[in-house]
Structures are given as C-alpha cells and as structure tokens.
Amino acid sequence: MVKWTDFERATIKDIFSKIDSGVVGSAALSRCLTVYPWTQRYFGKFGNLFNAAAIASNPKVKAHGKVIMGALEMAAKNLDDIKNAYTQLSILHSEKLQVDPDNFKLLADCVTIVVAGQLGKAFTPEVHAAFEKFLAVVVASLRKQYY
C-alpha cells in the first residue's frame, strides 16, 4: 500500500481542482499519439490520425481524453486503493484491448507536460514530485493484470 503525505494528498486534490480536465486529456492524448506514433495502433477506429493537426482536431481523440481524465480523477478520489479501483480498467486494457503496458508511462508523461503547462509557476518541483508519484501508482495499477 502506498503511503501518502498530507502534502501529497492536498497537492493531488489541488491539481485536479485547478486544471481543465477536458483540455488536459485531449492535449495529453494528442501529444502521446503524435510523439509516439506507434501508440496509434490502438486507436484504429478513430479515423484520421495522419498528422498532429488531424490528431488534435479529432473528436474521438478529444472524447477519449475526457475518459482518461475521468479515470485519473477516479484515482485521485481513491488514493488509498487505486489498484482495486483500477481493476476493471487493468483487465480491459490487458485482456480485451491488449495495450502494451509501456504506453501507460508514455501517456502519463504527456499528462505531466500538459498539466505543467496549465499550472505554470505553480507546478513547483514539490508539486511535480507529488504528481509523478500519483501517476506512477496509476501506471502500476493499470499494469497489475499484466503480470
């Protein structure tokens, strides 16, 4: 079980209260699909993903970005039990979708970049560390069913 400090708990809650989840999710997924084009293979039904502009304007990418942020918000509300909260997501991604688990870390890195951009100077090294810890637990929880 992960131990969270009071600062980390407050920081995670604060981050989600300050960001625009719709913008963050869409921008992070767009960035991931652009920077790591091999991740596009999981989104074959999304239509045009041929370049950065097409990806950024794709309504299915935007919609899935909201789904991603909804899952992250669920994790933030279940800090003490993210692994159990993510059981069904882990099963879905491992057994049905067969997503390469390394892609979760790539997406998490893109989420961090976008959140940092939204928070600006408020994204201090201490805030960054708390958010990285949170995303590391999320990634580990998504990978749970793979092993």
Work out the radius of gyration.
15 Å
Please describe the biggest sheet, giving its number of strands, its sense, and whether it closes into a barrel.
none
> Approximately how much helix is present in the residues?
over 70%
Which outline best applies?
A: globular
Number of strands: 0
The number of helical segments is 8
**Global mean pLDDT:** 95
Stretches with pLDDT under 50, minimum 5 residues: none
Q: Give the oligomeric state.
A: single chain
* Separation, N- and C-terminal Cα atoms: 18 Å
- Strand % is under 5%
Give me the secondary-structure category. mainly alpha
What is the N-to-C succession of helices and strands? Answer: HHHHHHHH
GO cellular component, one term: haptoglobin-hemoglobin complex
Keywords: Heme, Iron, Metal-binding, Oxygen transport, Transport
InterPro entries: Globin, Globin-like_sf, Globin/Proto, Hemoglobin_b, Hemoglobin_oxygen_transport
Family: Belongs to the globin family.
